[in-house]
Every structure is written in C-alpha cells, then in structure tokens.
Specification:
Blueprint: H1 4-13, E1 37-41, E2 44-47, E3 52-55, H2 70-82, H3 91-105, E4 114-118, H4 121-136, E5 140-144, H5 161-166, H6 176-179, E6 182-185, H7 190-200, E7 204-210, H8 225-235, E8 239-244, H9 255-262, E9 271-274, E10 285-289, H10 291-294, H11 313-325, H12 328-351, E11 357-361, E12 364-368, H13 377-381, H14 387-397, E13 400-401, H15 418-437
Parallel strand pairs: 3-13, 5-6, 5-7, 7-8, 8-9
Antiparallel strand pairs: 1-2, 2-3, 4-10, 9-10, 11-12
The protein binds 4'-deoxy-4'-aminopyridoxal-5'-phosphate (PMP).
4'-deoxy-4'-aminopyridoxal-5'-phosphate is lined by residues 60, 120-122, 125, 148-150, 210, 215, 243, 245-246, 275, 285.
Catalytic activity: (S)-4-amino-5-oxopentanoate = 5-aminolevulinate
Main location: cytoplasm
Subunit structure: Homodimer.
Length: 438
C-alpha cells in the first residue's frame, strides 16, 4: 500500500488549514484520504501515487472539453508567452465579452448587453448584488435555501454545498447586521416568495437564484419557476440575478437560460453571473446585464468594482478558446454521456435495492437517496445521505472519482469516450451494493 496521498495530506494539514484551499476537497463528509492530483488529461485524473481515475468532478464544472484540451493549452501557452498580466485593456477581453453576449443573443431576445470580467464566481455574484443595490437604492436581498453563490458575507446564509456537507448553518465572522439584509426562502415555493414580497417588497433590491440549483445536489426549478421569480420581482421594482456560474455554458451554448428558452420558458432577468466554463479552467468569471444597469459600474457609474487580475490575458485565452470549441456537437455529446451514466447508476442502485431518485438539469445530475424527488433544500437533507460515503469510496476504489459529497452534481465532459464510460459502468454495481450495505 502506498502512503503518498496520506503523507501529502499530513504535510498539507500542518501548513494549510484542513490541508485544503477549498473545504469540500478535504473529504470531510465521505472520510478517508483526499487524492492529491498531479495531472489530468481528457476524462482522466492522475494522483500522486500514479493511480488514474475517470473523473466526474471536472474541476467542479469548467472542464467541459475534458482536461488539458490541446487547443486550450496551446492558447494558454501562447498568451503566457506574450505576458502573464498587463493591468491594462487587451483586445481579447472584448472578444470574450462579445462571445458571451453573442451566445445568449443567438438563443433569443436577451437582456445581456454588456459584460464585466472578474476572477471568481464569488466576485461576480458579490458585484451583481452591489450593482442591484446601487440600481434600486434598496438593501434587502432574497436568496433560496440551499443555493450557493460563493462566499461573500451576504450570501453565506443557508448556502448549500460545502456548508451542507459540513452541516454548518452559515458562517462565523458574518456581521449580524449583514446577515439581516439577506432573506432566505425555501426553493420552488411560490407562496413563500410571495409572502416575503408582501411584507418587504418595497425594500428588496434583488432576488438571486441559481438558474438551476446544483449546489445541494441538482434540484431543477419547477417549470416556470424562474419566470415566476422575474415577474414577481419586477412587479415590486426589484431586480433578478440569475447565477449561471455553474450552469452557464455547461448545460448548453446559452446556459440554463438558453435551455429554458428551448423549452419555451422565457424570462428576462436583470443580471447574469458566469464562472467556471467561461474561464476554461483558469480563474475567470463574469457578470452581465442590460446596458443601463451595467453602466452603473465604475468608471461610468457610482457602483465600484475593480480587479488587478480582472480580464487576465492568460485566463481570457483559456475561456475564449474553450467557448469557441464548445459547439452544439459538444453539448449533444455531454447530454448523451449524462444520459448513459445517470441511467446506468440508477439501474445499479435499483438492482441493489437502494431507494433513490435521479435529479437532473440539462447534463447535470445527482442522486437523492430517498423515495421522492427533492424540490428544495429540506427534502435534500431528509435523504439517507449516509449511504453516499460507501458509494463514493467504492467508485474511487474502482477508479472513478466522484464529487466527495452527496450535495454536489456529477460533471461529465466531452472527453468521456466509450472507454471512460465503460469504466464508470463497470464500477457502478459494486458501489450500489456498497451503498445498500451502508
Ligand atoms: N455561484 C455558483 C452557482 C457556484 O456554483 C459557485 C461555485 N461553486 C459560485 C457561485 C462561486 O464561484 P467561485 O468558487 O469561483 O467563487
């Protein structure tokens, strides 16, 4: 037995809190030793012991083309050779903004006129909220329980994912005065949202919602729910921020908004946030919206936002090349892999007698270990989540790397070819039996 991963983890823990630079990586809810990765190509990641795994994490979303796509790597190398960071405008950042706006316009009449590039999803949502407050002159923010929008103060109430995994209600260090500005509402619950607006409608700056939540596992909006949110908010003079950091350019060429339009659901939010895929695996995110809102940002308007590395040329090269390679064929391939893997996992769980439901939004999916489809955070938390660690570790032992938490989506890539998929399919029956025995 090699102990390289364990040794690396021990060494990391002595110098990095919890041994990790982002909490869920610590295997807190599944136990065991996190794998320290040294390389990733296509659908495969390789750990420090030289073991390879078929990857269903995809860097938590960005790697839609698979890891280290040769054309993306070449574009990054070329950009790096021209200079890592200028702190000045570059032609390519405009091209990326045009690509983002163009993708939504191609899907239908779009409220996305202008885009600003930032470095993380957290920054994108934080800026979107400041912008909504600046635009409306109001303070209150409405978010949904179980939705994650990054780790800025206003957004850490009932925030799913890492917090759900760690069973934390929120975060220490958030001033009560700040927390009080955020109202948390159960997801997919029209009556609860109406009640909040009936009481606080005049003071609400914005509702922020994941386009299709995937940070409490996948919990898609009920048909028409996003349109309902937009209609209700606008009737009360509030704005709507659709957070597509995770779904944007992953579930389709125009994100989940585009998928909804394809299903004939139209809604015109005020601000979108993007991350992950838009940076092609580099630190890059974006927010965008109607021109009159976006022009409130400095230097034109009174809402301040800035960043030394915003629009970084190397990150822009990765994002732009990734988006240009993410054609309709790529999205069809992702849908097909998601079909195959989710159907096979469900069949294996059924065969092993494990009660479960497949939760799905576009090519994103996850499982709840319960008899009923989960429509909100409370339902997700009621599942038999203790079955997941056994399932997860069995998959890992059979060479498949899943997200180390039941509250996360599984991420497929266009590099999941037949060989990769068949390795996943071979592993599933063992994992399902392990979950049954848990
Ligand atoms: N919004 C959503 C929907 C996310 O999934 C995430 C990250 N998982 C964020 C915001 C925050 O992005 P980042 O981790 O880049 O700060």
């Amino acid at each position: 037995m090699s102990h390289v991963n364990q040794d690396l983890f021990d060494r990391a823990r002595s110098i990095i809190p919890g041994g990790v630079n982002s909490p869920v990586r610590a295997f807190g809810s599944v136990g065991g030793t996190p794998r320290f990765l040294v390389e990733a190509h296509g659908a495969t990641v390789v750990d420090a012991e030289g073991r390879d795994y078929v990857d269903l994490v995809a860097s938590w979303g960005p790697a839609i083309l698979g890891h280290a796509h040769p054309e993306v790597v070449a574009a990054v190398q070329e950009a790096a050779a021209r200079g890592l960071s200028f702190g000045a405008s570059t032609p390519s950042e405009t091209e990326l903004a045009e690509e983002i706006v163009g993708r939504l316009r191609a899907a239908g009449p779009s409220p996305l006129d202008k885009v600003r590039l930032v470095s993380t999803g957290t920054e994108a949502t934080m800026t979107a909220i400041r912008l909504a407050r600046g635009a409306t002159g109001r303070d209150l923010l409405v978010k949904f329980a179980g939705h994650y929008h990054g780790h800025s103060d206003s957004l850490l109430a009932a925030a799913g994912s890492g917090l759900a995994t760690l069973a934390l209600p929120g975060s220490a260090g958030v001033p009560e005065a700040v927390a009080r500005q955020t109202l948390v509402v159960p997801y997919n619950d029209e009556a609860a949202l109406e009640a909040v607006f009936a009481e606080h409608g005049d003071s609400i700056a914005a509702i922020i919602t994941e386009a299709a939540p995937a940070n409490m596992g996948v919990v898609p909006p009920k048909p028409g729910f996003n349109a309902f949110i937009v209609d209700l908010a606008h009737r009360h003079g509030a704005l709507v921020i659709i957070d597509e950091v995770l779904t944007g350019f992953r579930v389709g060429p125009a994100g989940y908004w585009g998928v909804s339009r394809r299903d004939a659901v139209d809604y015109q939010p005020d601000i979108f946030t993007f991350g992950k895929v838009v940076g092609g695996g580099m630190p890059l995110a974006a927010l965008g919206g109607r021109a009159e809102i976006m022009d409130l940002l400095a230097p034109l308007g009174p809402v301040y936002q800035a960043g030394t590395l915003s629009g970084n040329p190397v990150a822009v090269a990765a994002g732009l090349t990734t988006l240009r390679l993410a054609t309709d064929e790529v999205y069809s391939a992702l849908d097909k892999v998601a079909d195959t893997v989710s159907i096979a996992a469900s069949a294996a769980l059924t065969e092993a007698g494990v009660e479960h439901v497949v939760q799905r939004a576009g090519n994103l999916f996850s499982f709840v270990f319960s008899a009923e489809t989960a429509h909100d955070y409370a339902a997700v938390q009621r599942q038999e989540s203790w079955r997941y660690p056994a399932f997860f570790h069995s998959m890992l032992d059979h060479g498949v790397s899943l997200p180390p938490s039941v509250f996360e989506a599984w991420f497929v890539t266009a590099a999941h070819d037949e060989a990769a998929v068949s390795r996943i399919l071979d592993a599933l029956p063992h994992a399902a039996r392990a979950a049954a025995a848990a």
